[in-house]
Amino acid sequence: MPKGMILAAGRGTRLGPLTESLPKPLLPVANKPVMAQGIQTLRRLGITEVCVNACYRAQQLVDAFGDGRAHGVKINWAIETEATGTAGGMKGMQHILANDEIVVIAGDAMLDLDLAPLLEAHRARRAFATLATISVAETSQYGVVVSTEDGRIIQFQEKPTPGTEISRQANTGIYIFQPEIFDLIPVGCFYDFALDVFPEILRRNLPFYAFPVEGYWTDIGNPGDYLQANLDYLAGHVRIKGHGQRVNGNLIAASAVVSGTELHDCVIGDGVVVSRGSALTRCIIWPGTRIADPLHLSSTVLTPWGAFAIDGKTAAPTECNALDA
To answer: What is the DSSP letter of 182?
Structure first.
């Protein structure tokens, strides 16, 4: 049975102020930490043992997920004092992963995918490594992959500027490796899959394949993507189970107090209190946020520490004296 590896050590700098108080894998999507979706994706594949490396605000991640029992898995934690890269993070768990196929998922991935065909293709091709791709219209945020007709990877291009892309098949950060992958990852240094390991696989001409997956995937890499992932859930594009009740196009946690408010396409977390007379559109309100005075906002993430207006890929602090911590 394969084992799972979730990469969760990153700082999430492109998310700006949203990650100042939470590590990126804990950002709530549909009122659940986004990393929970990765765990459930692995669980649906039959994987019950998962390794997670953590660095930035690592204790918050450990406190949130613990031993994994509540999610139906066993979690083994690797706490890094300094980030060691995507491949370096997995190298630290070699003693647990070295005897099985390894399915790797990023801790910031919001996804609704069936990975069973990916695993079947990996085995059928006797691949050394298989990379899941998904077709995207905008390639500048992703690494893209070029493969032959039979799926063999021949080239990568990292975040091409518009008009220069050589492919529209984006690297999802979902990989399957044979345990021999550890032979290509040195000990005790920062090492990256895309920059270091994949070029070495190509140089050695090892069987390395791309496999297009179908469904929903985004890496919530910036504030706009984060807001859109929540809106995609509300629109029914992501078939996951959110936390709360669907009420008139909104997702509202049972403990939230929102009476006398006007809500459109909003996600409201546990313990939230919204003042009567408020009108909110396309807003995400994190658990524990209390709005003491009426607000009229749109495209805003409200947290117990502040409110942030989302404009494309950026999040800017918004004057919001009504927040009551």
So the answer is: G
Query: What distances in angstroms separate CA 164 from CA 85, 104, 161, 197, one per listed residue?
Result: 27, 29, 6, 24
CA–CA dist 4, 49 (Å, integer): 6
One domain, residues 181 and 248? no
**Same domain, yes or no, for 213 and 255?**
no
**What's the pLDDT at 116?**
96
- What is the sign of the dihedral through the CA atoms of 69, 72, 73 and 75? negative
Q: Which helix (H) or strand (E) holds 75?
A: strand 74-79
Q: Is residue 310 part of a domain?
A: yes
Query: pLDDT tens, 289-318?
Result: 999 889 999 999 999 989 999 998 888 888
Are 92 and 76 in contact, with CB atoms under 8 Å apart?
no
Q: Which domain holds residue 272?
A: 243-318
pTM over 0.85: yes
Residue 128 lies inside a defined structural domain of this protein: yes
